[in-house]
Amino acid sequence: MFPPDTPARVERAHRSIVPIYAFLETYQAWKSAGRDDACDFALGNPHSVAPEPFVSALRDAVTPRSADWYAYKINERPPRDLVAASLRDLTGLAFEAEDVFLTNGATGALQIVFNALIGPGDEAIVNHPPWFFYDGMILNAGGLPVRVATTPSTFDLDLAAIERAITAKTRLVIVNSPNNPTGKVYGEATLAGLSEILTRAERKHETTIHLVSDEAYRAVVYDGARFVSPAKFHDRTIVIYTYGKTLLTPGQRIGYAALSPRLDGREALRRMLTSSQILCGWAVASALMQHALPALEHLSPDMADLQARRDRLVAGLRDGGYETRAPEGAFYITPKTPIADDAAFAGDLARLGVYCLPGSVVQMPGHLRISVTANDAMIDRALPRFAAARAAAAG
Amino acid sequence: MFPPDTPARVERAHRSIVPIYAFLETYQAWKSAGRDDACDFALGNPHSVAPEPFVSALRDAVTPRSADWYAYKINERPPRDLVAASLRDLTGLAFEAEDVFLTNGATGALQIVFNALIGPGDEAIVNHPPWFFYDGMILNAGGLPVRVATTPSTFDLDLAAIERAITAKTRLVIVNSPNNPTGKVYGEATLAGLSEILTRAERKHETTIHLVSDEAYRAVVYDGARFVSPAKFHDRTIVIYTYGKTLLTPGQRIGYAALSPRLDGREALRRMLTSSQILCGWAVASALMQHALPALEHLSPDMADLQARRDRLVAGLRDGGYETRAPEGAFYITPKTPIADDAAFAGDLARLGVYCLPGSVVQMPGHLRISVTANDAMIDRALPRFAAARAAAAG
Fold it and tell me: ipTM of this predicted complex?
């Protein structure tokens, strides 16, 4: 399976994402064999043409205004200024332009942060169920992901369990709110409690433990839920963001890592992040996307539309006999499967032309993950099929 | 200088690029304090507005043709097919689409290759003088760069020295032709000789040693020089390419790594490279650039223009008293400095409004590196200043 002389680090990292590869192959097979009336809820992907304001922003940025329009870029001043201003508005903290590192999406931002912080055997705490690639990226950086389960049924952070998991080797804790896949948005009390734990642990172990706040979905919250950045509660916080979820354009990547202005010693960390951008394969947002960022910064997701789809799906799934929470944020509804084998049940649905992610791929066995980014026609067609699949499985 | 708990790997990698940072700071200071009539030869950057065919290709690709135009991309089939066809034309070898990995420029391609091949303590042979970031990227991947000097004055590969440098820990040898900074284009006999050495060493040590062929400048060759890909001579070759040099748009990145169809066991390596793309921060070319690639693939650098500028610069520098080779390829002319301290001499030139890279930054002490990507007006103004600086220094 592995080429000769493959480094152990790479083998471990690859093995951790084999279930995801396997699902993606299954998904491709579903699509290739698929019906014209398929309903695709499998990934957080767009199923409508990209909105005109996004396309216009890119089209406008294509035309060069100067000889250096497409010259080498690292982190350009105008987009950095805008991001810092936006983070000041969001958090009330005095974010500075020099602390913003523009990357190809949130995954690029996580890469430069993990590269700068994680050495061999260093530990990173990942709250489970997690986003697909945290574990693999930590392993690939040479570290060790330490899995801490969130509280059953509420999916809130289990602060006591996090505290027990911290050791002298812990370099960072990842907090992903609104959460993929659970839809949980962590409240102020939880975040304040987490900060106390991290501060206490740093003192005890005489180490530094960074809070890596993956806020990819922060613009996507429903009902009365309110996103609060962990940066408001914890000084040693690195904010991770991508425009790919807000704009639903995950293939045209721009995002950033930003250091809290309260992060002690951030000048030294700045240099490490810039080095990481260069030495991790020029992990820098493209010229075009840096030029377009001012226009993109002011676009919002169509939350009325997403909320309506979430509501219809949650209500429709419940009518069809499914037990499900309504997510507070992000793109995903996670109903329980009527049989324990979620992959088998996802296969049943696929045969009806309904594509969902089996929860076991994201450490949520016995659940499906259903993306609200499907279009309305897909939802119309899918709801009776969901009900039929459940009836057949329960039968 | 380093934050507490910084991994040793990251410290080593960062230290290796400190001279480059220092130069970039100096260069920024030159530009900030600079004259309106400055002549900028410091980097391989454009000094004219990007050509209309490039801008048109991007503008055309901006308009979405489908709902998934800006959806998640990894390596899309149409650009992979085109790259494979182009490599078949170039080499006569049966390159396959599945062996092409589309990245944000050549640096991104090097990153996924280094990540897949280099474990702790593994060695990578770098021929010196080298491109800025090979050593740092190898260190950052956890490996050890092993420097082998090219033959003095010709800058050809020193095959005997490479053979002596190979050990049981050698995982790869980087070949950069046309070379940055020396301008050397390696000939067939050299490449055939290198292949013999690598094959013999693999047998001796019972290991695999990859030839990583950085062909960023392969479209930029002068006079009668002819670029030949090392892939024609050595089976275990990985081709690295970027469109950023050909199109002179280094801030709008697209490039690739491609496995030779003769590379033994390449199916297993394919998986490792895809994993590396995902786990190194989604090191994948953007949707827009993948859509634009078919139009970009057919664009060429304006070689008549570059050749004319190379000729004027070489002749003008020689007339001004400089001793210099004429590069066979790539963007750089590397005259000897009239005083041993190349950084001091670059400072003298900067005070005259002429910005050049001191050779010591790229392991060419006693030289300057002068980019032919400056515009014609800059060359007109610069030649008398070069002559004046030399006269003053020799004075």
Answer: 0.97
